[in-house]
Amino acid sequence: MAVSKQLKLQHLLWRAGFGPEARSWRQWELLDDYAWWPRLRSDSAAPPRFFDVADGAVRGLLMGIGELGKIEQTKKEMSTDQKKEVRKKSRENLQSLNLVWLEEMVRTKAQLREKMALFWHGHFASRNINILYQQELLHLLRTHALGNFGDLLRAVSKSAAILAFLNNQQNKKEHPNENFARELMELFTLGRGNYTETDVKEAARAFTGWGFKLDGTFVFRRFFHDTGSKTVLDKKGNFDGDDILNILLGQRQTAHFITRKLYRFLVNEETVPEERIRQLGDRFFDSGYDIMALLDSIFGSTWFFNEENIGCKIKSPVELWVGIRRALPLTLDDPEGQIVLQKALSQVLLYPPNVAGWPGGRSWIDSTSLMLRLRLPHIIAAQGALGLNPKSDDDQMMGQMRAGRLQNRLAAEADWQPLLDIFSSQSERDIIPSIARFLWQTPQANPPLAVLKRHTDPGSKIQLIRTAALQLMATPEYQLC
Amino acid sequence: MVIKRRTFLKAAALATTSLWVPRFLQAHARPGALAPNGKILVVIQLSGGNDGLNTVIPTRNDIYYRERPRLGIARDKALPLTGEAGLHPALPALKNLYDAGELAVLHNVGYPNPDRSHFRSMDIWHSASPASEYWSTGWLGRYLDAQCAGSTRQCEAPVLEIDDTLSLALKGERRKGLALQEPRQLYETARSPYFTDYSAAQSSREDDDSPAGYLYKTMAETLSSAEYLFEKSRVKLSRAGYPATGLGKHFKTVASLILGGAETSVYYLSLGSFDTHINQAAQQKRLFTELNDALAAFSTDLKNQGRWNDVLVVTFSEFGRRVSQNASGGTDHGTANQMFFLGGSLKQKGLLNALPDLRDLDDGDLKFSVDFRQVYATLLERWLDTAANPVLGQSFEALPFL
């Protein structure tokens, strides 16, 4: 079965971004297929703006107290109330950062950059209560998202967020702490089975003394550093942390490991052809870890658009929600409801479950999370203003039954105009299949028309478009991209 | 064309709800249905790191009272278990169960290289991974996988969490447990005509091994489980009085499903937060009162209905707390902790092993002597009748208390 041009375009927009935006859909449709990828690239060319949400008070308490010896002292000097206040403010700021980033994913034309930043956020996963450290790390990820992996790795490895999260502040000559060195090899570069326990121990010695000041700037504490000789991956020398990073980047395995993970994120989670990974990984390695060149190889290929790679990926909660908001622009009464939603669906930005990031794929879906996903369009609509078919009263009720809190907090005003602009010219009988083709990425699935007819409102074309779009989003098919 | 039995049943169900045959009953009709021995496991997660030393108090230990001048619970306040140990005064129901030989306590449960982060340590307890590894499935989820492996029979909802979201512990590789706050809520969602119509229309795709097939199957199973659980929860409305607390309501739901004959073999509940860095005494007392009253109602109810021998209640927490109190009337994150086992079928009762040795600490923290995965192995093999090795990934010797 031939894959239509429309399906291919949507496939690219879902994988290299967060799905087609109803408002700009017409412009994309007019482009020739060879112009799609260059357009996505150029839309993400500009460096990202810095998200600064840190509270002045937090900054005041944490910044400017640079001297190392004083860190512990300063922390002790803070009263319990002050510490509590900093923690509370920091938590609030983290929520703000979460929402600012989410909003950027919805609105920015730099879709590719933010999508890749989300990938790196899952790769260099850090949980950290300190807002200053987290917003610096996020900025690093967004800045280097399409640049050079070596630069990214080096920057992340010197970030306070990662060094704090992986206990390298406690990594000292007399008492090495292996946590950072271990995750660096297992999760950030080589992957399990490609190094030994001795490599971890020896690398940990090389990172002794790598730390950060209270304000988050990197510092090398010579006094704590083990200057002795180390042997890592068959190389011997008086290595420091930078040497270890170079050794790891010098391993072809690192390029293959990153390529495989990225392939699963961008192309296909379940079917990963090893020969293709080897070729892509080699090219990535030979390019000196040029991320954009790797993306060129993936999105410029013909196999990317093969039917087996389309509509086969279960959207992460963030992809699902941002995708809905791009297809159906929403003005939310209470943006913080989106934090509750992320929690309920198990993907909270800036709170990955652990350093391994989100496992993804089928692990997103259980009975409870699927029912909530399916109900999302109804929850949005249950406000009444959107007007569902009277026959669908139970669906409306449903939105109000469980999690009343979430229901209220996701109240939103939807802007239907962009979708009406796209579909109003269709004849009534073509409307449901046309909207399905726009919202669904499952190539062979036809909407069960009889069911949809029973549960949409044919009262007017506008009502039909509205109710069909909502019902088509409340399906298993819409969970896929 | 052969119409699959399941498809036919679903079509029939659409025609009239009285013909609805829940998948659970289909499972029942097949050999090797879950929980063949009828045993039920109830897990209570004490979230936040419960202070074990103020739960079972070493009432003759000078070090304990020396390290906890403000927080230590006086010997005459504790509910005596042995000459050396007493229970927190807010747990009289557990004391009664202890006296009746229906409570066992295992001390010093933990794992090597303990992690003091709540999230990470909870991850380790849920996934049952070594502390150095990150697993994305949970032990009860893999129990489900093992139960359903190589079988076409339906396996939905034998593992239930009473909550809004599903914990990692209940997520398997191929199968996942089900989370609900209240059977009626899930049922109200699931009986949406749109969802039932839609699911029925796409039922031919459920056996597809693709992500799409997985979604259709999960949807169909959820709809049928929702109806099944709702029906079961109404068969025998428990008249027993349960406290109007969160945990009290959750235990009432569990009791109504057990007494209604649901085939669920594992129930998972949580209580918290036990993260008592400040003003521990009041917080722990409040939570223990909630725990105590709910367990009192539940054990009485099940005894009266003659089911207490089929039930085992287990408590755990992601870690214990440090031996010394801190300066804020609380305690900080620690390591090993005790687990409680309650039920009418214990082979060994009372204190199963020695109290923590406060003279032999690891930088102010208790040393573990029992790996929690050994406890899991015991629960799987001796209670749920399941080989533990495939679930835990290695062998652990079962303990003799079951």
Question: How would you briefly describe this protein structure?
Answer:
The complex is a heterodimer of chains A (481) and B (402). With 481 residues, chain A is mainly α.
Key attributes of the depicted protein:
heterodimer; A: about 475 residues; two-stranded antiparallel sheet; 25 helices; globular; B: about 400 residues; alpha/beta; Alkaline Phosphatase, subunit A; disordered N terminus
Topology:
The complex is a heterodimer of chains A (481) and B (402).
Chain A: H1 5-15, H2 25-30, H3 33-43, H4 56-62, H5 70-77, H6 80-107, H7 111-123, H8 131-144, H9 149-157, H10 160-165, H11 179-189, H12 197-206, E1 210-212, E2 218-220, E3 230-232, E4 235-237, H13 241-249, H14 252-266, H15 274-286, H16 291-299, H17 317-327, E5 330-332, H18 337-344, H19 367-381, H20 393-401, H21 404-409, E6 412-414, H22 417-423, H23 428-439, H24 449-454, H25 461-473
Antiparallel strand pairs in A: 1-2, 3-4, 5-6
Helix pairs in contact in A: 6-8, 6-17, 7-8, 8-9, 11-12, 14-15, 15-16, 19-20, 23-25
Chain B: H1 5-15, H2 23-29, E1 40-46, E2 56-58, H3 62-67, E3 79-80, E4 85-87, H4 92-99, E5 103-110, H5 118-127, H6 139-148, E6 159-161, E7 178-179, H7 183-190, H8 193-201, H9 211-235, H10 246-259, E8 266-271, H11 280-304, E9 311-316, E10 337-343, E11 350-351, E12 370-371, H12 372-383, H13 389-392
Parallel strand pairs in B: 1-8, 1-9, 5-11, 5-12, 6-7, 6-8
Antiparallel strand pairs in B: 2-4, 3-4, 5-10, 9-10
